[in-house]
Amino acid sequence: MTSKERTFSIFESRMPDRVPVFDEIDKSTLDRWAPLDRRIRQEGCEICFGFDIAFFAYDDKTDPGYGIEPSFERVKSYSGINSIIASHGRLKDAEKFLALKVCEPFEHLCRMRGREEVLAMIIREPRAFRRFLRDSLDFNLTMCELILDKGYTFDAAWLSGDLGYGRGPYFSLGHYTKFLYDLHREACAFFETRHLPVVFHSHGNITEFLPSLVKSGIRGLEPLECGVGLDLERIKAEYGKDIVLIGGIDQRTYVNLEKAKKEIKVKLKVLSGEGGYIYRADGPVTEDVRLDHYKEIVEYIKVKARYD
């Protein structure tokens, strides 16, 4: 199967030949690895490591509430990994599963204003908070529409927003329902009409929000962060038929090859049964991980996570 076919089968509740794989790798890690393997810079991680999913983004640095207009210039000026202009055609031709990253309204506001200020705003300035969230969603969905109208095609949308930390969500379920649920549902409906499943990215323990997130229309959840009290067996049992689970592998074990393989073997047994799972580490791969060990880890997953 191609990467595109393999990953699509997961979202369509069909069994692929193996679990799809991808990872987020710190820039400092890539800088350290690049002199050891020129293909990292020449071909990108998707080709060099055989990742199945390729991510694209645009410049979303704007403060919601200040009336900054969306523009395709923000796509042209984006200088991060996998610029849409520079890399979309190449990775589409390689039959990768293409995902468009979109900043979720709460996270978007936090990046511009700071998390502490935004959390205080929920209590002190709820009307302004609601208005800024609305402005953020409008900005980002308009940006996506501009990109899609230019003929760039994608296979999924990745809605990125950290709603929690180790002890739980940053705010109550009541606040989530009051301020964010309808916006998340609107975002999912926007992408659903364009046949793009929505994956929700959030670090922290947001178990309390899962029923609402599933109801809003998300089709996947990542990165299932380790060490924050997530009960992966319970999440798989309760939500594994409704959403694709992505991640759950403790990246901290990757500094030791044997510990990493043991962690992967245990977690695959919990998460990959009956499909519905995509591999990624639960956080960015850090620079203390050896390149040769990381390559072996990726190949180990591709062998251990086969269904055929």
Explained architecture:
By secondary structure, this protein is of the alpha/beta class. It has a single domain, classed as TIM Barrel, CATH 3.20.20.210. Helices cover 47% and strands 10% of the residues. It is built from 14 helices and 9 strands. The chain has helices spanning 3-11, 27-33, 39-43, 45-48, 73-76, 84-93, 105-113, 115-124, 126-149, 173-192, 210-216, 232-239, 257-271, 291-304, and strands at 53-56, 97-103, 156-160, 164-165, 168-169, 198-201, 220-222, 244-246, 277-278. A 7-stranded parallel beta sheet has the order 1-2-3-6-7-8-9.
* Low-pLDDT residue intervals, each spanning 5 or more residues: none
Radius of gyration: 19 Å
Give, in order, the helices and strands. HHHHEHHEHHHEEEHEHEHEHEH
Oligomer: single chain
Helix content: 40-55%
- % residues in beta strands: 5-15%
Judging from the principal axes of the Cα atoms, what is the shape?
Answer: globular
The number of distinct β-strands equals 9
- Structural class comes to alpha/beta
CATH level-two architecture: Alpha-Beta Barrel
| Major sheet details | 7 strands, parallel
What fold name stands as the CATH topology? Answer: TIM Barrel
Number of helices: 14
Q: How are the strands ordered across the major sheet?
A: 1-2-3-6-7-8-9
